[in-house]
Amino acid sequence: MRKVRFLSIIVCAIILTACGAPAATPEAADAAAAQEMETPAPAADLGGPGEMLGFIVEDDGQIPGYMMMHGFLRTAENLGYPAKLYRAKQGQEALASVETAIEDGCGALLIQNSGGANDQAVQAAIQAGVYTAVPYDLCTLEGLDCNVVADDTDYIEELARGIAVRMTERNLKSGRILVYGVDTQPIYEKIQAAIGEYYPQFQVVSYERTNAGQAAVDELAAYLLYNRDIKGMYAVDRESAPLSVQARNQANRQFRNEGTPSPTPEPSQLPGTTPAPTPNPGLLTQISITAFGCGLSDENLNLFYDNDIYGLCIEPYYEAAANATMQLDRLLLGEEAEQTMRVNRPIVYGDTMEKYLAIYEEVKGLFGLQSTATPESQA
Fold first, then answer.
1. What letter would DSSP give residue 275?
2. Number of C-alpha atoms within 13 angstroms, CB side, residue 89?
3. Which of 76, 108, 118, 356 is most solvent-facing, going by the fewest CB within 10 Å?
C-alpha cells in the first residue's frame, strides 16, 4: 500500500508539472493553509477522489479550534496531502460545509463536534461515504470511522498526585484541596477518589463558579478567607485559573490587613460525603495555596512563568487532530485504523513546558494571534 501511495504522489507531481504549476515551498505551506481558511481555493485535481483532506471546525476564534487546525494542517502536510479548512458555526453551517467539502473533492473529513452540536454534519459525511473522524470530543454515532478522544480519567490520578506531592513537600500533614471552576462535579469526584486512595491525610472540596470577572474573584476570596485550611487548588477550566489566583491574592491581602476573621466556619460538608475533620489550627494562620490550572492561554502561561500556578494540565487539542488525521491517512491507504483512540492530558511543570509552548507559539504565529505570554527563557 505504501508503494501505491508513492506512485500516486509521483503521478500527481507529473500532472502538476505538465500544467505549469509552481512547486510550493515548505516555508509557504502554513501561510497558504491559513489563507485558505478565509478564501477557499478550488480542489486540486489529483486524478481521483479521496486524496484531499478537509476539516470542518467551529468558527469561534478560540485557542482550542486553532490548536486543532494546526494539528490537522501540519500532519496533512507531513503526510503529503493537500488540506483545506472549512470554518463554520455549529449546526446548519457545519452541515452545509460537508456538502461543500465533498464537492471540493475531499474524500476524508475531520469534523469538530463539541457536545454533539454537529451530529448532523457527522452523519451526513458518513452517509456520503467519505472517511470521517471526530477529534477530541467523544462521539458514538454509528458508522464513524475514527474518534480520537481526550483522556478524562487517567490524568486525574497524575493531577491528584502532583497536588498532594507538592503539599507534602511543603511539610503539610493535613489540609484540603479545592476543585474550582465551571462544572466541577465530575472532576471533583475523581480527584476525591484518587486522594482518598493514595493521600488520605488530605480532604477534597469543590466550589462551583457561577460568576465571571471581579464578582467571581470576590466570591472565591471570601470563601478562601474563611477556609484557610485549603492548601491546594485545581482550576478545572481555562478561564478559572486566573480568577482563582486573583482570589487567592485578594484573600491573602485581606487576611494580612485585617487579621483572623471571626468566627472561622467549620469546613463545609458536601451531600453524600463524610464530615471533614476540624482543621489543624496551625493551618489557619496563613493563606498559602498551591494552584494548578488547566489549558493554554496567555493569561495561564504568564501565571505559570510567574510561579503563581505550579502545574498546568494541557488540553490535547493539537494531538487529537493530528492523530485523527493520521488515522484518515491509514484509511485512504486501505489500511485498518483505530476506531477509538485516547490521547493523554499531560500535567506539565517548569521543566516540561517547552514542547507545548512551542506548539502554542506556532499557532499564534500561523493564525496571526497576538501573544502576551512572556516566559523568562524568552525574555
1. P
2. 2
3. 356
Model pLDDT, residue 278: 52
Number of domains within the chain: 2
What confidence tens digit (pLDDT) does each residue in 71-87 have? 999 999 999 999 999 99
Q: Quick: pLDDT tens for 174-222.
A: 999 999 999 999 999 999 999 999 999 999 999 999 999 999 999 999 9
Residue among 143, 133, 142, 154 nearest 322 (CA): 133
Place of cell 470563601: 223
Yes or no: say if 53 and 84 are a contact pair by the CB < 8 Å rule.
yes
**Rounded (10°) CA dihedral 33, 38, 42, 43:** 50
| Same domain as 278, residue 133 | no
Residue 209 has phi, psi (to 5 degrees) of -85, 125
Mark whether 281 and 324 lie in a shared domain.
Answer: no
Q: Are 91 and 118 in contact (CB under 8 A)?
A: yes
Whether residue 228 is found in the same domain as residue 335: no
Q: How far apart are CA 82 and CA 75, in angstroms?
A: 11
pLDDT digits (tens, 9 = 90+) for 103-143: 999 999 999 999 999 999 999 999 999 999 999 999 999 99
Residues 305 and 357 in one domain: no
Q: What is the CA radius of gyration of the chain?
A: 24
Element (H, E) at 320: helix 317-332
Collect all residues with Cβ–Cβ distance below 8 Å to 19 and sequence separation of at least 6.
Answer: none
CATH number of the domain bearing residue 8 = 3.40.50.2300
Q: Taking phi first (over 0 means left), then psi (-120 to 50 degrees means alpha), and beta for anything else, what does residue 41 get?
A: beta
Q: Specify whether 190 is located in the same domain as 300.
A: yes
With respect to residue 377, please indicate whether it lies within any of the assigned structural domains.
Answer: no
Tell me the C-alpha distance between 165 and 295, whole Å. 21
One domain for residues 144 and 165: no
Indicate the SS3 state at residue 266.
Answer: coil
Q: Are strands 230-235 and 202-208 parallel, antiparallel or unpaired?
A: unpaired
Q: What is the residue range of 20's domain?
A: 2-150+317-343+352-370
Burial group, residue 227, by CB count within 10 angstroms (0-12, 13-18, 19+): buried
Model pTM greater than 0.85? Answer: no
